[in-house]
Amino acid sequence: MHGPASPGWLLVALCAATGAYCLLRMRSSDETQRRAAGDEALMGFGMAVMAVPGSAFTPPAWVWPAYAVVFGGAALRALWVARSGTHHLHHLVGAAAMVYMAAVMTSSPTAGHAHGGSGVPLLTGGLLLYFAAYVLVSGVRLLPVAGAAGSAATASAQAWGDRPELARACRLSMGIGMLAMLLTV
How far is CA 84 from CA 74, 79, 115, in A? Predict the structure, then answer.
């Protein structure tokens, strides 16, 4: 995405670190968590590559259509898997947002808005609202619950890759990253 270099590199670092943690979560003994972690790792690394500042690297013209194909496939997979759990609907929205941003970058790789008008396009605004709500809800879910003193012992017995609060923090950071990327579209 085309924005200032320093925040762009911070976003790259955040998304790459999140993607790396999600790869480690793929070693979980829980199959559903492994699958979700794989989807989230793809999203984290994809966001990291897309967030590289344009001043540092200008990708060839074929990159954005390739992104659209990869994340279009991820969206179709999320749609198929959403039959078994509503969490995959968020993966569907995230993959669709990546397809949308890749399409915007394909049509105008050097400008933020390819739509010619002033203001925020309707789809961008809808995605911004969705991810803002997702970030707020995810942040609230990370707040400690009163009476959860016994959960500290349970958490120490779990493998660090299987801890749900770390997975929630991972999803929260990717939601924040998606918000930042959508603001530059």
Answer: 16, 10, 37
Residue 100: CB partners within 8 Å, gap ≥ 6? 123, 124, 127, 185
Task: Say what the pTM is.
Answer: 0.82
Between the alpha carbon of residue 73 and those of residues 25, 49, 131, 132, 164, the distances in Å are 22, 18, 21, 25, 27
Instruction: Give CA–CA dist 46/65, Å, rounded.
Output: 13
Contact by Cβ (8 Å): 77, 32: no
The ranges assigned to domains in the chain are 5-183
In angstroms, the CA 180 to CA 133 distance is: 14
* 80-125 residue pLDDT tens: 988 887 777 889 999 999 999 999 988 875 544 444 455 578 999 9
Distance (Å) of CA 97 to CA 26, 89, 102, 104, 179: 24, 12, 9, 11, 10
Going by pLDDT thresholds of 50, 70 and 90, the confidence category of residue 25 is confident
- With the C-alpha atoms ordered 17, 23, 24, 30, is the resulting torsion angle positive or negative? positive
